[in-house]
Write a structure and sequence with these properties.
81% helix
């Protein structure tokens, strides 16, 4: 119970911090048409697109992880969900720090696809929840690894590129772990309680 409370408080604090950061950065940029040319380029670049997607994906990983930590049937899936909360909260904080240095406003909500998945998972329970969550995490992390590797190799912004490089090994570990869980078939009917 204590871990769930900590997780919920941590997610709430992260959401509040992202909202505060967004408001602060918007306030700094409001009415300032003379914004630094480098910032304007950054805001329009592939690096900015990567940052926006990474921020939304990170928020989704935390919220979906919280759901898995609470609802999953399999202890392995519950543990993986908590692992997502812990690792992606840390990565989200790192990304937010980089974005602040670039005067970027990051999204504070999940994208429509991840929100739809969250709502779908809320309606599931037991093995059905585990199967859907594990399947989604495999696909999601396969895509994340590709996008982060691309940014790590081809990014133009040094700080964003370094963030991606530091995060790739973590994402690869997540992918390996969730594939292992998927391979164990934790949703075998014989394991139902």
């Amino acid at each position: 119970m204590n871990g769930v409370v900590k997780t919920c408080l941590g997610a709430a604090a992260m959401t509040a911090l992202l909202a505060l950061c967004s408001i602060s950065v918007k306030a700094q940029n409001t009415g300032n048409p003379q914004m630094d040319t480098g910032t304007q380029k950054m805001m329009k670049s592939a690096d900015a697109t990567f940052a926006m997607k990474a921020a939304q994906g990170g928020l989704a990983e935390v919220q979906l992880g919280q759901l898995a930590a609470q609802k999953a049937n399999s202890p392995e899936v519950k543990a993986f969900g908590q692992h997502m909360v812990d690792d992606h909260t840390k990565a989200n904080n790192q990304l937010m720090s980089v974005a602040q240095g670039e005067n970027m406003t990051l999204p504070t909500t999940m994208n429509a696809k991840d929100q739809a998945e969250y709502e779908k998972l809320q309606g599931l329970s037991g093995n059905a929840f585990d199967r859907e969550y594990v399947s989604f995490m495999v696909k999601d992390h396969e895509q994340d690894v590709k996008e982060f590797q691309k940014e790590a190799s081809h990014g133009q912004d040094t700080q964003m590129k370094n963030f991606a490089k530091q995060t790739v090994p973590v994402l690869k570990e997540h992918l390996s772990r969730i594939r292992s869980i998927q391979g164990q078939n934790p949703t075998n009917p014989a394991e139902q309680h």
